[in-house]
User: Which sequence fits this backbone?
């Protein structure tokens, strides 16, 4: 038996929100898995990029509890390879932003050890701040 | 002649009384309406924001310091009538305008990192070590727009990312640490603390040292001037006055 | 009255006088009137210096300086009741116990804290208390520079002679000697801490002279000298985590049975509660008295310059000095009205700006000592009637600032005087193009609590530093010696109070006996007054409001 | 304030030399701090090719990563402000009719180029950004953002080959592109899946090009801030593969790739003790070497993994 998929209005709202923020038609994804296969960071993710897309399609806010979008390095490998032309990096960014805009930062730059911060180049800190802090 | 002198002092007193003892309504011809924290007051048109607040009846304790634009205590934000722009200014250095809405910002909450300037490495990494928040700058330029000293604040924050101590020192030298930039920064950077650190680093490690002062400190320590001091200090006032007059006549001017 | 027409910041009628200034300008470049002879100087002081004009002073009737002359405004504060009732203060509960209490957070107080710390007093055994914020001080507003005789053609002895002469030979010689001998060391100390002074390409200081200063020894940081010095020291102070209380002025000193100063009663201005500080040594660094507006003069001073230090020290038995003299800075702003009294640094004149009357004529050598220069401005305005009248009824003298660019090159005014240029620009005046209007303004408290070369006073446990002290400058201070005094004697007071504490000072029972005695003396001297001091802050509220205030809370 | 030169003043170009074609150039923060050798070597090799890269006046940090949400504009202000400065240089006569802006850092290139593309496609957004930056001149959209490699390709690799004085014969170099020069397509300087631009350059320099299948694989980018172990694994994979393919060293065009590939070798070795360090060089360093420039220009002493033993072995360094 095929389980019935039920989308409540909350699910629809979340789907809409992610679609708007990312500018992507998330429902176009047909779950081929090319993104997951292309992702260099997938080993560190708890769910794969395609699973992330699926959860968004289903409007499941639980996706925000996953690590996947924080492990994403915005390398755009998925973007160039998606056969449906979806920009998954924008979807991941939308998920990050939903949390960051609630003032939930992923990292605290002040807690990076001093010797590490002295080692890191400007470019790493600036990009880290942009992606992980709101 | 004696009577004239008294007269002079009385005239001086009379001429400055508005700034000395507070404004007297009967001397005022032009008035403006302003809003202090939302409450309307009519005040003389010729006053600074600070004088107007006092005229309205506030006795200042916070938000008032040197009253001359140096100390940064009287940070004020305001909007002019019909304007969407939020302006920053020092209350003691800005004239009230009709329709102005204002509030003073007495304090900028911001922790200052602790360091020992003598031990720090003169290297770009030290700036980000103490002020990693600088990496959050989005170059929106709000800091520059809010600076009452008209400094190019964003440029010196950017200089920090580039590790350019001299750029920060020169760009921030006239900073009065009023905190308006930090209060308004969307990236929550504390510009003035960073600049203070960078200026000291530049002063200590980045600029050349003066040799004369070094020599003179040594000479004094060796007691080079002791004999002459003893001689001069032993002179009578009349003798000293004589030397003084000669010295003044051979003075360097420009 | 018809609406005034303004042309580039000035009322139209002043433009005629400015035209005269412009006309005479080419002939004046590089040509100065000769300096006055000592006799001429004395004559003009007697003629129209506010200190010498009768009616402004009276004799103190009580206390250690009974019989001495002081300005009425000063005497009113010294001969007044305390803010507190001594019996109502609970001294059994000590809020802060410390080795060194420093009252005042300007250059002097901050220097004292750093040096006390350098000399073995741990940071947590120091307490700095401040009436307003740390750094709300006249030091912050010092523009011109700091004197230090460091060039080969100069010497501390020449500096000594200049300072003594400027003070009419009334300074305490041993105190002046330490001032000038420590000066180069102070500059080097600041450089070590990272202060940025004006320098040329080779790292040599750019130095200028000042009024009454015979050699170039003024070390400046554009016209933000005091601000740069103080913010550097304050940053260092904060790095050392020295405890500080802001908005907590000292309202009385505490003494023990031996009469030693043993701390202070502080008042938290924001919560209205008092705090008791017990300390082995106390350094008074409360600054000056510009906000007393002596003789009705406007002032260059900051909001808290209200003579609190000498008032409380006097009650504890401290001897004052040179209470009869006040320094009026010749060049306070006289126009526009929003900035009346604010300082226009003497460095403007050392850089070439000349004072001129309404006809555009020179009438005095620009770099006489401050008292002489100020007196000659008053004479020009009110005796010779050659001043320029402002719309508010003040009179002023032109200071021909455009000369600076002509002498030192285009752009040099903006580079050397960014604060001044900015201030006038805010009110629509371009001081690079047009002269500015000036008149003497109340600037400096020459005298104060008598100090010795260690920064110590006649009372054990009480040290002083900076403007609150007396003896360094005699009856007139030279430009660039105030920031210097603050740092030399701040350092000395910090150092020597540390040594004093280390001798094993024992504080007995805290008391306010001296305050009770003061009240008795006040009554027995027959002084009639309702005034209660220290004054803490001036009151500039509108007269209409004051007339109808009621005290409910 | 004293006008004397600050210690370690970074402009490495000697002003006495003749001026070539002047093109505005965007250094980026890291080239002024941790990647000074990248800038030094690039400015000098450009000069060898008749180009004077003129540092953009009052440039600000581009932001290093492009903000990807549809509604966010504030993070595009920084790169657009930089592009305004290029137009200002033209109107102020600092350069004449030159709207190219050359970036060296891959991330700066990527961000500047994408910001330009975005506002060109969305005039409404450009208007908002111009309004927010009301103290600046409006952005006219005239700037074309180039990566230095693109400029080199425009100059022509044969011309570069002619400039070579010391061919890098025998040096086996694996080009590493990373992400932002190639992806997404609209901001790519070459084929995203099979780029050749660095290979062509290296061939022109006389080096032996070693193809690494991981040449376009991400180094972990900004993840280095919060997960250095993950980044070290990626570095291990990329470099190990390069070595397996026969490379002596790797070359890159991005200071963040450089940090992850070179500095993070410390973390790689903690996890994989068998890993032998491998030099990673900016392509401009190799150009400087091949052009016969002084070793101080090449800056090999500043590479985290010292390439000099390798270069000596290959007879390319004394």
Assistant:
């Amino acid at each position: 038996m095929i389980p019935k998929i039920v989308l409540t209005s909350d699910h629809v709202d979340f789907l809409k929100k992610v679609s708007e923020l990312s500018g992507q038609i998330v429902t176009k994804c047909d779950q081929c898995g090319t993104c997951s296969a292309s992702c260099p960071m997938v080993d560190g993710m708890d769910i794969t990029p395609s699973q992330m897309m699926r959860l968004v399609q289903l409007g499941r806010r639980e996706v925000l509890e996953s690590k996947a979008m924080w492990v994403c390095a915005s390398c755009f490998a998925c973007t160039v390879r998606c056969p449906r032309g979806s920009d998954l990096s924008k979807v991941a960014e939308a998920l990050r932003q939903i949390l960051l805009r609630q003032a939930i930062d992923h990292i605290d730059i002040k807690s990076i050890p001093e010797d590490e911060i002295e080692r890191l180049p400007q470019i790493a800190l600036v990009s880290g701040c942009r992606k992980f802090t709101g | 002649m004696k009577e004239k002198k008294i007269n002079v002092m009385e005239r001086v007193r009379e001429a400055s009384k508005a700034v000395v003892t507070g404004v007297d309504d009967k001397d005022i011809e032009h008035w403006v309406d302003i809003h202090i924290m939302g409450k309307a007051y009519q005040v003389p048109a010729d006053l600074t924001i600070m004088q107007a607040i006092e005229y309205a009846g506030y006795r200042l304790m916070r938000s008032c310091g040197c009253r001359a634009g140096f100390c940064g205590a009287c940070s004020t934000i305001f909007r002019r009538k019909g304007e969407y722009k939020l302006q920053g200014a020092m209350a003691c250095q800005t004239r009230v305008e009709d329709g102005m809405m204002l509030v003073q910002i007495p304090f900028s909450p911001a922790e200052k990192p602790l360091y020992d300037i003598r031990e720090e490495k003169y290297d770009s990494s030290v700036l980000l070590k103490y002020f990693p928040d600088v990496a959050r700058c989005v170059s929106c330029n709000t800091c520059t727009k809010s600076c009452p000293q008209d400094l190019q604040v964003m440029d010196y924050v950017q200089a920090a990312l580039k590790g350019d101590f001299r750029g920060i020192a020169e760009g921030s030298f006239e900073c009065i640490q009023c905190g308006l930039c930090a209060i308004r920064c969307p990236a929550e950077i504390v510009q003035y603390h960073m600049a203070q650190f960078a200026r000291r680093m530049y002063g200590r490690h980045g600029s050349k040292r003066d040799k004369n002062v070094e020599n003179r400190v040594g000479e004094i320590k060796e007691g080079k001037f002791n004999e002459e001091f003893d001689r001069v200090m032993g002179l009578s006032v009349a003798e000293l006055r004589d030397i003084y007059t000669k010295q003044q006549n051979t003075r360097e001017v420009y | 009255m018809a609406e005034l027409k303004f042309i580039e910041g000035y009322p139209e009628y002043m433009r005629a006088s400015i035209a005269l200034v412009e006309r005479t300008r080419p002939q004046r470049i590089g040509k100065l009137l000769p300096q006055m002879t000592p006799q001429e100087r004395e004559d003009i002081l007697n003629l129209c210096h506010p200190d010498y004009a009768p009616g402004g002073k009276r004799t103190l009737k009580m206390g250690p300086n009974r019989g001495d002359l002081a300005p009425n405004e000063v005497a009113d504060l010294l001969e007044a009741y305390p803010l507190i009732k001594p019996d109502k203060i609970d001294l059994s509960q000590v809020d802060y116990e410390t080795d060194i209490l420093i009252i005042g957070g300007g250059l002097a107080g901050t220097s004292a804290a750093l040096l006390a710390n350098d000399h073995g007093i741990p940071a947590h055994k120091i307490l700095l208390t401040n009436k307003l914020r740390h750094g709300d001080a006249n030091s912050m507003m010092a523009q011109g520079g700091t004197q230090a005789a460091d060039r080969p053609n100069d010497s501390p002895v020449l500096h000594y002679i200049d300072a003594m002469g400027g003070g009419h030979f009334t300074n305490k010689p041993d105190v002046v000697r330490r001032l000038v001998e420590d000066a180069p060391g102070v500059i080097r100390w600041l450089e070590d801490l990272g202060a940025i002074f004006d320098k040329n390409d080779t790292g040599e200081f750019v130095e200028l002279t000042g009024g009454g200063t015979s050699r170039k020894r003024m070390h400046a940081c554009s016209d933000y000298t005091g601000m740069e010095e103080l913010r550097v020291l304050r940053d260092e102070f904060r790095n050392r985590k020295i405890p500080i209380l802001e908005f907590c002025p000292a309202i009385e000193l505490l003494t023990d049975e031996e009469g030693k100063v043993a701390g202070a009663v502080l008042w938290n201005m924001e919560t209205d509660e008092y705090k008791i500080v017990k300390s082995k040594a106390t350094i008074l660094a409360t600054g000056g008295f510009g906000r007393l507006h002596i003789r009705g003069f406007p002032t260059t001073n900051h909001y808290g310059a209200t003579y609190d230090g000498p008032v409380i020290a006097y009650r504890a038995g401290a001897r004052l000095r040179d209470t009869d003299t006040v320094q009026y800075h010749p060049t306070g702003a006289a126009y526009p009205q929003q900035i009346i009294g604010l300082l226009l640094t003497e460095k403007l004149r050392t850089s070439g700006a000349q004072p001129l009357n309404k006809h555009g004529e020179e009438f005095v050598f620009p770099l006489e000592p401050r008292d002489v220069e100020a007196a000659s401005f008053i004479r020009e305005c009110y005796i010779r009637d050659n001043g320029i009248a402002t719309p508010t009824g003040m009179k002023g003298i032109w200071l021909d600032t455009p000369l600076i660019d002509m002498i030192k090159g285009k752009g040099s005014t903006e580079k050397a005087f960014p604060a001044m240029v900015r201030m006038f620009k805010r009110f629509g005046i371009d001081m690079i193009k047009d002269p500015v209007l000036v008149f003497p303004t109340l600037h400096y408290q020459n005298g104060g609590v008598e100090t010795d070369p260690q920064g110590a006073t006649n009372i054990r446990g009480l040290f002083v530093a900076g403007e609150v002290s007396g003896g360094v400058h005699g009856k007139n201070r030279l430009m660039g010696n105030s920031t210097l005094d603050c740092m030399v004697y701040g350092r000395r007071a910090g150092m020597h109070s540390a040594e004093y504490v280390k001798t094993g000072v024992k504080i007995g029972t805290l008391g306010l006996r001296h305050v009770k005695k003061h009240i008795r003396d006040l009554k027995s001297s027959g002084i009639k007054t309702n005034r209660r001091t220290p004054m803490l802050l001036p009151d500039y509220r509108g007269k209409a409001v004051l007339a109808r205030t009621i005290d409910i809370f | 304030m004293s006008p004397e030169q600050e210690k370690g003043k970074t402009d490495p170009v000697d002003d006495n030399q003749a001026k070539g074609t002047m093109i505005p150039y965007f250094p980026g923060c890291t080239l002024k701090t941790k990647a000074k050798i990248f800038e030094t070597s690039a400015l000098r090799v450009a000069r060898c090719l008749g180009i004077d890269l003129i540092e953009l006046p009052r440039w600000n940090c581009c932001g290093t990563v492009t903000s990807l949400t549809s509604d966010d504009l504030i993070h595009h202000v920084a790169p657009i402000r930089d592009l305004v400065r290029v137009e200002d240089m033209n109107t102020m006569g600092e350069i004449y009719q030159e709207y190219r802006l050359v970036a060296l850092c891959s991330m700066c290139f990527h961000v500047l180029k994408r910001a330009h593309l975005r506002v060109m496609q969305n005039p409404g957004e450009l208007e908002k950004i111009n309004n927010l930056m009301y103290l600046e001149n409006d952005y006219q959209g005239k700037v074309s953002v180039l990566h230095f490699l693109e400029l080199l390709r425009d100059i022509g690799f044969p011309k570069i080959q002619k400039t070579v004085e010391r061919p890098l014969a025998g040096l086996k170099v694996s080009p590493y592109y990373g992400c932002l020069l190639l992806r997404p397509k609209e901001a790519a300087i070459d084929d995203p899946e099979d780029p050749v631009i660095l290979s062509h350059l290296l061939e022109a320099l006389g080096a032996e090009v070693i193809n690494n299948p991981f040449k376009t694989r991400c180094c972990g980018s900004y993840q280095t801030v919060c997960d250095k172990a993950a980044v070290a694994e990626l570095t291990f994979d990329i470099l190990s593969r390069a070595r397996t393919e026969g490379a002596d060293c790797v070359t890159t065009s991005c200071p963040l790739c450089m940090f992850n590939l070179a500095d993070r070798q410390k973390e790689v070795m903690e996890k994989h003790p068998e890993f032998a360090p491998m030099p990673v060089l900016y392509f401009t360093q190799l150009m400087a070497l091949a052009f016969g420039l002084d070793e101080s220009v090449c800056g090999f002493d500043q590479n985290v993994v010292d390439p000099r033993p390798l270069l000596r072995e290959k007879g390319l360094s004394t």
Observations:
- The first strand of chain C starts at residue 6 and ends at 7.
- Residues 199 and 205 of chain C are 4 Å apart (CA to CA).
- Chain C has two domains: 6-51+328-443, 82-326+445-502.
- The radius of gyration of chain C is 23 Å.
